[in-house]
Amino acid sequence: MLVDPQGRKRVHSVSPVRRTIERALVAVGTLLLLAFIAAQAHRAILVRAEMNRFKGEMKAESDKIALSSESPGAPAPSLPGDADVANNPAVPPPSSAAHTNARIPYSGHAIAVLRIPKLSLEVPVLDGTDAITLNRGVGWIQGTALPGQNGNIAIAGHRDGFFHGLKDIRTGDRIELRTAQRTDTYVVDRTVIVDPNDVSVLEKGAAPALTLVTCYPFHYIGPAPRRFVVEASLKH
Q: Domains plus CATH for the chain?
């Protein structure tokens, strides 16, 4: 602190070290913000590319694809969590549309498109629920019915990602699930909060159903302890 010649005003001086630290913090913050924006843009590009690929190639190949919901040795369905406990890499995934398509050699391909008008959500449904897959879309839970088939179709998504808006979904809201063959419309029957080991919500019922799963609470820091489940039935 400096005093002027008249001794009336006090002038605070800023050391060069402090200025350097402040500039460094601003630079780091700017880089982090740019990295976040780049990551969001990259994800948006991947999502759009996957949906365009699905809507184009899968539609063209739809007449050649035979869907099958059963596969010997398929893992039992389980509720995915933040750390992705749904997939076991040692177990081959069950047969699905793209497994019969030689043009799609990679896992995590789109097998459907999920649309929730109320949430302004349109996202590809990818085959699998590993971390990389769920960063590009939502994932079909292996062991449940495939999109376009009868049974309980279960789909998982991150609570801080594509399924964050599920916190605002209500009974009666409409959900659309589009496959290469058709678009099915479901109506939300209820939402329920369950423990991670409660797989009863994935069981096949008497009527065609759609189940959406994400972690809960939505704003929980760290691995979330419970699962938020949306149950919907097919609208005829």
A: 21-234 (2.40.260.10)
